[in-house]
Amino acid sequence: MAIRSKILRAQLAFLKPILDHCSVETARKAQDQLGRIMYAPKKGKVSVERKEFPSFVGEWIIPKKEKKEKKRPPFVILYLHGGGYVAGNIDYARGFGATLAVKYRFRVFAAAYRLGPEDRHPAALEDAETAFSYLTESGFPPERIVLCGESAGGGLCFSLALALKARGIRPAGIIALSPWTDLTQSGASCTEKNEADPALSKERLDFYAGLYTDTPEDPLVSPLFGDLSGIAPSLIFVGGDEVLLDDSRRICDRLLAAGSSASLTVTPGMWHVYPLYGVKEAKKDFEKMERFLTALYDEN
């Protein structure tokens, strides 16, 4: 493990018991500050345009060096942020959204969907569907839209894919980082990795799940339990020390068993949503994402 990763891991481990017992408001402030930190070095490399919806806000994050080909229709990443369905506003979403836009030179639309406990399920999913419909109405056909999200946002990408499938719609692909796909916390890693993961705990997951839904077994809440046949090609990343390790392993296995295309990368020694921290160990992950996006861009 690189020196910077070791330092980050120690800092996260120090903060973990504090975050496990803090209020929702404190968790929200901490998450939004992380987004501002992520966005700062990318600020001069993108332009941002706000879009107001009746129930939430979104932002276009447009790279100054955008990938364009005259013979092809436009291509966009719909980014759904993490935060346990209770934290993360547009300031947070803008952070990793800008990272995606700069790295891959595609437009990113970040949707700051409604959060629990004020707005419980299905509010987040409804807002994700609204954002997807907005993109199609703006000239992006489904096969030119890639869903991307981390943690709860990664799980929401799969929930959105299930909801879209019911309407006969399939996006180009899905990129999920440490996706939370089972809000019942039935995966063995939720307990086995609880001490090893410096960034997240089963206790916090249980707390957030209770604020978001009364039906964690619902496939549109926990897409692990849904019919995953016909889901778009999926690229999944997870840390080897994560409490959500089994959420990624099991949904990848079930996608493959259902005949869908899926690939899983497990990075040893890494914690929850480690690529967001800019660690050296995530370099190959971002390279895989680029190859995945390039293939989808060329095929659709």
Radius of gyration: 18 Å
Q: Would you tell me the structural class of the helices and strands?
A: alpha/beta
Indicate the overall shape: globular
Would you identify the regions where 5 or more consecutive residues have pLDDT less than 50? none
How helical, in percent, are the residues? 40-55%
Strands, count:
8
Count the domains. 1
Largest sheet: 8 strands, mixed
Query: Quick one: CATH class?
Result: Alpha Beta
* Mean of residue pLDDT values: 95
CATH architecture identity:
3-Layer(aba) Sandwich
| Binned strand content | 15-25%
Tally the helices: what do you get? 9
H/E element order? HHEEEHEHEHEHHEHEH
Alpha-carbon distance between the termini? Answer: 38 Å
- CATH level 4 superfamily: Alpha/Beta hydrolase fold, catalytic domain
Structure report:
The chain has 300 residues and is α/β, with parallel strands linked by helices. The chain has a single domain (3-299), classed as 3-Layer(aba) Sandwich (Rossmann fold). It is built from nine helices and eight strands. The protein has helices at residues 3-20, 24-39, 90-104, 123-137, 152-165, 189-192, 202-212, 245-257, 283-299; strands at 46-52, 57-63, 76-80, 107-112, 145-150, 173-177, 234-239, 262-267. It has an eight-stranded mixed beta sheet, sandwiched between helices.
